[in-house]
Amino acid sequence: MSHGNGMNQQRLSSVPSSIQTEDFWDATTSLEGLSSSENAGNEANERTSRFHFLDTCVRLYQAALKDDWLAAKAVIDMYPDAVSYPITRKKDTVLHIAVAAERTAFVKELVKRMNSDDLALKNSHGNTAICFSAASGIVSIAEEMVNKNTELPLIRGSRGRTPLYMAALQGHRNMASYLYSVTTFERLTAPERIDILVAFISSDLYDVALDILKKDPELSTMKNTYGKIALQELAKKPSAIGSKSQLSIWETCLNSCQVPRDDL
């Protein structure tokens, strides 16, 4: 995992601003087997690939960007497996595109046509569609996907990041809180947990940070990827303790974690 501004500086996977044939080469080659009659001879393969590229990939791509579910449905009704096809050079599926474009209603209908494995497909950067959702902060989109595949929050994306970590780095309070509620924290590695904790504190998401510390006090003095200690980061943020009641809670946590005050 990485921290700092890396997540903000690196886009998870950009949606192309214009459609170019070369961006869809991976998709066209994967679509060659859709119609056995059209692929009867090797000499027809290139023409068939072009047909399916124009008829399937581009239409799905444009439909997702335009939030035109009826157009996408027409394609999917003809080629049900198209929901799992990579339709860009970066191997984004139509779900990746729709989530990145923040098309909530479109995603809801699309997910109904997908199975749990389809939802877990990664693009060439290693990101599933829920990684895009984590970065965007739209909880309803993440909920649609997680309701169908509860393992999604545990599937690591680019650089081994979990969706929860991505949301915390972006400072998306509602998304981070939601993903925290559906991520089995015990199944994360210790380095992942401390990175997530520090990310929550750095993004001023103290309520979840406190809950993490209560559940796993040993994280309080562990160093994250960049050598930062959670409670040292907290000590740099006076706004984290805004009332006597909050102070009492944090002091209790400090005492229970047995953190020497000289270390803060």
Strand content: under 5%
How many angstroms separate the termini? Answer: 24 Å
Number of strands: 0
Indicate the low-confidence ranges by residue numbers: 1-39
Shape: elongated
- Approximate helicity band: 40-55%
What does the largest sheet look like? none
InterPro entries: Ankyrin_rpt, Ankyrin_rpt-contain_sf
Concise structural overview:
The chain has 264 residues and is mainly alpha-helical. It is built from 15 helices and no strands. Helix 3 packs antiparallel against helix 4, helix 3 (45-66) packs parallel to helix 5 and helix 10 packs parallel to helix 12.
Give structural notes:
The structure is a single chain. This protein is an all-alpha fold and 264 residues long. Helix 3 packs antiparallel against helix 4 (69-78) and helix 8 runs parallel beside helix 10. The model is unreliable at 1-39 (pLDDT under 50). The chain is built from 15 helices and no strands. The protein has a domain at 203-264. Pfam families: Ank_2.
Task: List the defining traits of the structure above.
single chain; mainly alpha; 15 helices; 53% helix; disordered N terminus; Ankyrin_rpt
Annotate the secondary structure layout.
Elements: H1 6-9, H2 25-30, H3 45-66, H4 69-78, H5 94-100, H6 104-112, H7 116-119, H8 129-136, H9 139-148, H10 163-170, H11 173-182, H12 190-202, H13 206-215, H14 230-235, H15 244-257
Helix pairs in contact: 3-4, 3-5, 5-8, 6-9, 8-10, 10-11, 10-12, 12-13
